[in-house]
Every structure is written in C-alpha cells, then in structure tokens.
Write a structure and sequence with these properties.
Rossmann fold, four-stranded parallel sheet, globular, binds iron/sulfur cluster
Length: 304
C-alpha cells in the first residue's frame, strides 16, 4: 500500500511539475519522499530557487508554507494539512507588534521566521535560528525589537551584544522548552563519551550546559564532523531520523524521547498524495502583506 502511494506521488509530481520540500522535523516517510529536507533557512533558500517547479508541496507548518509563497509568488504552494500550525508563530499578534514599534520608534524590528505573514510585514528584517546572531549584529540600532521567541531573542542578543525588547515576553516553543538541565545531567551520566547539542529555542540554563548550540541545519553539519561519533540531540525527535540516515555508523540519541512537535506529524503520505491530486490546501498570502513581508525575508537571504 505504502509503495503504491509513493509510486502515485512520484507520477503526480512529474505530471504536475511539482517539488516536495520537507522540514527536518517531518516523519521519516515524508523525509524519504521529499526532494529536499532542511531547516527553515535552507527551505527559504530552496523555495527562492525552484524556478523549474510549478507547484511546491510544503511538508512542514503553515508559517513555512507562507514564507515559501511570499518568496515564490508565481508558484502554487500546497500545505497537505491546513491544521499544521506552529503554536509559537501565533504567540505574537499584529497589534502587539505595532504597539511595541510605537513605544520604541528607534528600534529596528527582527522577526523570527516562525511568525505569521502579517507580523512579518511589520519587520525590518527576518531571521532564522541559523542566522539570528548574525542578523541582529547587522542592525544599526543597539536596541532591537524581537518577536516571538523569548529564548532566541536572548540568545541573539548575547551573540551580538545588543539589547532586545522581546514581544511577547513569554513567546516560546513548547517542544524546546521541555528540555531541562536534569536532562543534560542524565545524558552526561548515561552517555559519558557523547557530545550534547541543543537548539537556540531551548532555555538558557539548558543551552549553558550543552557542548554546542545549533539550529537543525547546524546540527546536520555537526553530525558529519569526523570527531563526532555519538551525539545527544536536544531538538524535535525526528531530526535524529535524518542524522541516523545520513551518518551510518554513528549514534544519535534524542535528549528527550517525548520531544514531539505534534503538528509536524499530522502530514502523512496519504495527505501528500491528496494534496497533489486535488491541489490543496493552497496557501495564499494577501498580496499587499506578502509584498511588505518579502522585504524583510529578502534582506535576510541577502545576508545569508
Ligand atoms: S517545534 Fe516548536 S517552533 Fe518548531 S514548529 Fe513545532 S511548535 Fe513551532
């Protein structure tokens, strides 16, 4: 049955000139049928360079598909399940962001890519977890508004030496804030020879105990380092699926086995097939909002 679905997906991809992009947190079977698997930055860059395709099937969550649609407005972008959202992306509202801008008119505004299109349209520049420190360092102002992830805002401020005003104060990812210092201590006891890497969305006390802090793209590169034989990975559990597939002979251990992003898992092979057959669910971003949001995304891509 699964083979039959995969065969149909392949046929429809050719017939409709479609490409499948998947985030590193997608389930194994989706990663395996994707044409490209990456983190948010890599997927942005890829979506910006898919001239050959007419349709992008985006296996990830809604803000990622919106971003692809904003930077590739001539493509039809499909999200196989329209309930695939990111809780963090919805944590900052347009009104909150506008209020912060009015209160701090001298601050430049950096929006984490994990945000909705309408809030991105109020940004001076967008960042991902792979480039947040570099983007914030590039700002002219010493104080900056950052939304919506508190932990990434603090992390990018430390990397750049600038002062963040974070909107909202408690924006967070429920998956990455699951990790606790005790998890790191236990991993050190259980795997004394392993290195430990965590994501910048983790709390500061966790980041400080890890050997490395990396975006998922950075973790993929770190895993290829010949010095790394055993790596404990503090991010969504399915990144270890990719690391294991790409690095035979090495061991990748999830820092917590319950670190699931539930909405990343609602995309299935059946839904990808249906998306291609019926060309649903098309992600459409209002033209005016998209034009404004594109400015901040393009600035980030130019600096990447
Ligand atoms: S892992 Fe966290 S930040 Fe990433 S999509 Fe899921 S909820 Fe959003």
């Amino acid at each position: 049955m699964t083979n039959e679905i995969i065969r149909e997906i392949e046929e429809l991809k050719k017939e409709k000139n479609a490409i499948i992009l998947a985030h590193n947190y997608q389930p194994k079977e989706i990663q395996e049928i994707a044409d490209f698997v990456g983190d948010s930055l890599e997927l942005c860059i890829k979506a910006n360079n898919v001239d050959e395709a007419d349709i992008i099937v985006f296996c990830g969550v809604n803000f990622m598909a919106e971003t692809a649609s904003i930077i590739s407005p001539d493509k039809k972008v499909l999200l196989p399940d329209n309930r695939a959202n990111c809780q963090m992306a919805d944590m900052v509202s347009l009104d909150e962001l506008k209020k912060a801008k009015a209160e701090h008119p001298d601050c430049e505004v950096v929006l984490y890519v994990n945000s909705r299109a309408e809030t991105k349209s109020e940004a001076d520049i967008v960042c991902t977890s792979a480039n947040a420190g570099k983007i914030v360092s590039s700002l002219k102002s010493d104080n900056f508004i950052f939304a919506p992830d508190h932990n990434l805002g603090i992390y990018s401020a430390k990397q750049s030496g600038k002062n963040p005003i974070i909107v909202p104060e408690d924006g967070h990812c429920y998956v990455h804030t699951m990790f606790k210092p005790e998890d790191i201590k236990k991993a050190r006891e259980d795997y004394p020879n392993a290195k430990i890497v965590v994501h910048p969305e983790c709390n500061d006390d966790v980041r400080q105990l890890a050997d490395y802090v990396e975006s998922t793209g950075g973790m993929v590169r770190l895993a290829k380092d010949p010095e790394i034989k055993q790596l404990v990975v503090g991010t969504e559990i399915d990144l270890t699926t990719r690391l294991t597939r790409e690095n035979p002979g090495k061991e990748f251990i999830p820092l917590r086995r319950d670190a699931f992003c539930l909405t990343m898992k609602i995309i299935t092979l059946e839904k990808v097939l249906e998306a291609l057959k019926e060309e649903k669910y098309e992600v459409v971003v209002d033209k005016e909002i998209a034009a404004k949001a594109r400015v901040g995304i393009q600035k980030m891509l130019d600096l990447s």
